[in-house]
Amino acid sequence: MKIAIVSGKDEGPTKLNAFDNALTDAGIGDVNLIKVSSMLAGNAEIQKLPKLKAGAMVNCVLSEATSDNPGDEISAVIAVAIGEKLGCVVETTGINKPLNELTDEAEMMVKYMMDKRGVKIEKLIVESSTTTVENISSVVASVVYLNEDIIEG
Predict the structure, then answer these.
(1) Domains of the chain, with CATH numbers?
(2) Is the pTM of this model over 0.90?
């Protein structure tokens, strides 16, 4: 199994536009995202996000936060734990919560999931996106499940 871990942030004239712009900043704005639960095959391989086919149906775990309250600090966090047998992904978000608390929370949750399954963590990655809202902002962090059908030529 191959995955990419991405994040993005941006402003927009509406909440939807800010979210779309954040997805585009993360490199996943031109595809259809299908939210899936948080399991990975064992020894999942992390790759750089390739160019995806426009309109492709793309499975992902997605963390996102949007706010139209100027001055809010918004964050989206994703944590990935990979073991030999399987891997787990968790997501969390926060508005005006310290980023280190959110990343600690995500790390704790993913470690718990792996421990509950009796799987030793071989690799742990935490990805986040955070910004201070100017007008309307959105942040995203995502694990994108890659396969040949969604990758452009």
Answers:
(1) 2-150 (3.50.20.10)
(2) yes
